Amino acid sequence: MSVAESEARHRALLGALPDGVLLQDLNGSVLLANLRAGQLLDLKLLEESSSGVPAQRRADETGPMVLNGHRRVADPRPGRIEGVNRISSAALRSGQMQSGFTDPVLVDGVSQLLQVTSIPLLGDDGMPRAVVSSVAPATDPAAVPSAAQEAGGDDIFRRTMQHSPIGIAVATLNGRFLRVNRTLCRMLGYRADELQARTLADIVHPQDIATVRARIAGLISSDEDSLRLERSFVGHGGMHLWGTLVITPIRDSSSRPVQLVVQVEDRSDLYQAQGLMTHMTLHDRLTGLPGRPLVLDRVQKALDRTRRSGLRAAVLQGDVDHFRVVNDNAGYEDGDEVLAEIGRRVAASLRAGDTAGRLGGDEFVVVCDDITDEGEAGAIADRVRAAVNEPLVLGGRTLRPTISIGIALSTSADNDPLMLLRDAEIATYQAKNRGRDRWDTVDTGLRKAASERLDLESQLRTAISDGELELHFQPIVGLTGRRVIGREALVRWRHPQKGLMPPITFLPIAEESGLIVELGAWVLRAAVRAAAASLDPGYVAVNVSPNQMIRPGFSAQVETVLAESGLPAGQLVLELTESVMLSAAPAARLEIDRLHRLGVRIVVDDFGTGFSALSYLRDLPVSGIKVDRSFTAGLGDDPQCDRIVEALIGLGHGLGIDVIVEGVETERQSDLLVGIGVQHAQGYLFGKPSPQYELQNA
């Protein structure tokens, strides 16, 4: 706030108060003063003549001295202004109200002290821009508090401070309230007379009284201007509020403290906002349950309590079964509604004192105290399962969700909370593998396998960023002439210790951990660049994970990769599994349509292994199917395989789409396929996967 703005804002106050009031800048120069200030401080005041030219007049001359309620000042008398400057400078330094007394001066022929109260005027940045002071005659401060109540100090407090938005009181050195303003009364819920019958210790939270008393004693015995504390206060009826406490001593001319000015600023809203932010940090946004950091804290506290009880702590982790199906078919918003309801059910099924939390996705956790054995933990898990399994109506359909739960029991109070959580996660995998909708505990062998899996997941994350992945390409040929028409890109991991690892050893881990999205993006970019850099006119086929397809923006990613590489869209084939096509959610179908419009071809991989209708071949822009290698292996030996392959070939021809048979390893298989009209095939007979992308005829 500028000095000019401050002048305008406080003009009415300066002109109306019967006490002396003056405005000073940061250097102590007096900018504005009313008549009473001129009389008390022996200031020279300027008034404007009718012509607008300032005319000088002594402050004690008769006649009206009104210039919008204030006077500009010229040549202030240094003798009297020094006492004001000492107090106003302290207010500017501290940013808080300051009060004190000047040396004795002659007022109306009588030697008197002047009591000065200075308040800094702060700008928008919280820094002082000017200071306003009130001045009035006071009796000897050694006679306080009675003198302060009987003299002009009472008027100063009542007139200048009553409308302050901060709670303010004048107190004795031992904390007894002498005067209080209406804001402090409203803040604490007391009438003025009720509050004046109390002490500062009565409104400070009991656990803070000793600290506040010690700090006040230190303030009184030192030369400090004020002390500032963040404390809890107790009001009428036991009400509590958080606030900033500022205590400033009023000193006499010898700098002895004679009274205390107490300021209390209500900060409850800020503390509530901070508490809300802390809650949001530690709790899951969707369910309101504790998140991972708070869950780990609860596990540690449960372990600490086992030292005294001699019992055990238990961690139960639950994964909702087949939750991806809900998201794929109902959408993420309905999926969130399901998760929120399951969170409520899990929490409601627990004992008092147990903690329910959410780790993310469809993973929930329960922390239990005072568990005797596995059977008791299992009983809690059964209650959670039963609660989750209650019917749930979603979009007019009734669902009966189930949950698989893993249990980890502490063996000592020194157990690591992270290890307990990890063991519960391992047991959850085991429960899922054994049929779902059940609970299980971890065993040594499973713990070792899971530990190795988690280590491999961590290493895979590093492999993606450190360039340990590489692509091998297997040719796809025309059976007549065996000319290479395309190549399938197959990812390999060249592990620093384990050597070249096939995809079966790490792709399942990538799928479960979500790393498949990052890995799939790397494969897509590397395959398209390799194809664009070659002279081969054939296409490159890239396998796409379900996790990639269900994420919006996949088609835009493909478009970007094609544009960066220069590869024509017609030379890119994306292979989707039959399960992806069968369960394609609206969002995934939209991505498939966009890819088709780009000119990218879609081929269904592992065709024939699904178990649902073939309507997606009619409804989605599919350009080809790949017959699974399991049917190829029995050609010529198993009549059922022969008939199935013939039927699939006939289906493809009838729909006008390409048919590629995988897993061809012998000349006999090749001849049989040619005999039933197969045009394209892939397998070791025509070439094994190779790191080289080159023109090659099988």
Question: Describe it for me?
Answer:
A hairpin with a 3-residue loop joins strand 23 (484-495) and strand 24. Helices cover 41% and strands 27% of the residues. Helix 17 packs parallel to helix 19 (515-533) and helix 18 packs across helix 19. The N and C termini lie far apart (84 Å). The radius of gyration is 41 Å and the shape is elongated. 38% of the residues are buried. It has four domains: 1-136, Beta-Lactamase, CATH 3.30.450; 162-277, PAS domain (Beta-Lactamase, 2-Layer Sandwich), CATH 3.30.450; 283-442, 2-Layer Sandwich (Alpha-Beta Plaits), CATH 3.30.70.270; 457-682, Alpha-Beta Barrel (TIM Barrel). The longest helix is centred in the middle third of the chain and has 23 residues, at 444-466. By secondary structure, it is of the alpha+beta class. Strands 1, 2, 3, 4, 5, 6, 7, 8 and 9 form a nine-stranded antiparallel β-sheet that branches. Strands 22-23-25-26-27-28-29-30 form an eight-stranded mixed β-barrel, surrounded by four helices. A five-stranded antiparallel β-sheet has the order 11-10-14-13-12, sandwiched between helices.
Q: Helix amount, in percent? A: 40-55%
Helix segment tally: 27
Distance N terminus to C terminus?
84 Å
Q: Please summarize the sheet with the most strands.
A: 9 strands, antiparallel
- Write down the overall geometry: elongated
Q: Which strand-content bin applies to the residues? A: 25-35%
Give the name of the CATH architecture of the largest domain.
Alpha-Beta Barrel
Total number of domains: 4
Within CATH, the superfamily of the largest domain carries the name EAL domain
CATH hierarchy class name of the largest domain: Alpha Beta
Using the coordinates shown, work out and report the CATH topology of the largest domain.
Answer: TIM Barrel
- Given as residue ranges, the uncertain stretches (5+ residues, pLDDT < 50) are 1-10, 48-69, 139-154
Mean pLDDT: 81
Pfam family, one: GGDEF
InterPro entries: Biofilm_reg_signaling, EAL_dom, EAL_sf, GGDEF_dom, Nucleotide_cyclase, PAS, PAS-like_dom_sf, PAS_fold
Domain PAS: 153-223
Domain EAL: 453-698
